[in-house]
Design a protein that fits this description.
By secondary structure, this protein is α/β, with parallel strands linked by helices. Helix content is 42%, strand content 14%.
Amino acid sequence: MRALVTGGTGFVGSAVVRRLLAEGIEVVCLVRPTSDLRNLEGLEVLLLEGDLLDRVSLRRALAGCQQVYHVAAYYSTRPQEAELMFQVNVQGTRNLLEEALAQGVERIVHTSTIGTIGRPLEKRLPTEEDIFCDWERASPYVRSKLEAENLALEMARQGAPIVVVNPCAPVGPRDIKPSSTGQRILDYLRGKEPSFLPGGINFVAVEDVAWGHLLAARRGRFGERYILGNSRGNLTREGFYALMERVSGVRPPGPRGVRKLWQRAKALGRGFLLKAKEEPSAPSYRPEALTADPSRAIRELGLPQMPLEVAFRQAVEWFRRHGYV
């Protein structure tokens, strides 16, 4: 068995690569010349340079593959990069899926995001049945991922062997960039108030997310979405603080009023004003919450449920060991 992984150098993608290798599956990773390869060091994978917008390189990478895990995506909060996000996330997805189908790939797992799951009006957790209907307030990234997801689902309705997964906020080692979740952990460890959504966030072990990709390929129904989350992972800010204090031994950040005064004083500094002129602030597209109900993936796929305390402790230890804190 041979599988192509796009985005294999990233946090989630490299976890998928490691899971595939552990299952005895040969892995090909599509990488760009500028890709950071640290997450793949020491792994027996075939690295092929290419780009989602270059169909020739996609054909070369797909040769002999029975499975595709499309984890790659371009993320940015800069408004001027919105067009590039749509090119990579939508047109790049179209290129990959069409080339994979032309080569007779047997299973395709398309990685979307929890951000494309709709938020129900009634007081319950969102499920895969909730359709996204907040286009006007959505960020360019979420819009591009939603279009890519709809493209994958439409191709599945036409008979393509495609399953979509919607990971929640992954937690664990090798978050080299770091991700938004990793940044929240680092901010907490550094005594800063992390960015957090008022309605809460569903956190899940990155290893469970990786397993979810393989299980989606094995057991997932074509044309279906699966939320890859943790049934006990919906945390408020207070729940996040309590968990972080347990696993790190670090007390939560100080009183919010003191922090705001310090931030305001810092904002008056000349260096801050110069930077603001160079890089205008992006519009805020923050959703109210990113909580979710992952019961379908648990029931139909057998999605593992690593305790959050284990996943967060692994992340904290990894950040500390690698000098992030």
